[in-house]
Amino acid sequence: xxxxxxxxxxxxxxxxxxxxxxxxxxxxxxxxxxxxxxxxxxxxxxxxxxxxxxxxxxxxxxxxxxxxxxxxxxxxxxxxxxxxxxxxxxxxxxxxxxxxxxxxxxxxxxxxxxxxxxxxxxxxxxxxxxxxxxxxxxxxxxxxxxxxxx
Length: 150
What we know:
Mean pLDDT: 87
Radius of gyration: 25 Å
CATH architecture: Up-down Bundle
Structural class: mainly alpha
Oligomer: single chain
Number of helices: 4
CATH superfamily: Fumarate reductase/succinate dehydrogenase, transmembrane subunit
């Protein structure tokens, strides 16, 4: 005699894999970083394009003035890191979904990782090593807080 289980009988629990669930954390990162990025991007666009004289005011002195302020250094660093890692994670997801050959998948994931590390390193170096008062430049091109080199 065959027994049919009741329709609402729970199925056997699947075996839980041990370790960190990277897909879950990647999914959560995408949602959290997306919300923070919206604020950072619209703040960046407002300050650069709307406030003050608008886009015509963006020149070396404008950028130098922003990067002389620790608030904007942190803001731009967050924007750089969150946007690059967010994009790299999205590309990782696409590669995992569409690259069926394991060798090709490893190569593509390695290329994404390498390009992300290089861009994060270079971008962070630019933000933190930027000299707003380069020697030998005309005073009218420098921000107002730079000492005049004579």
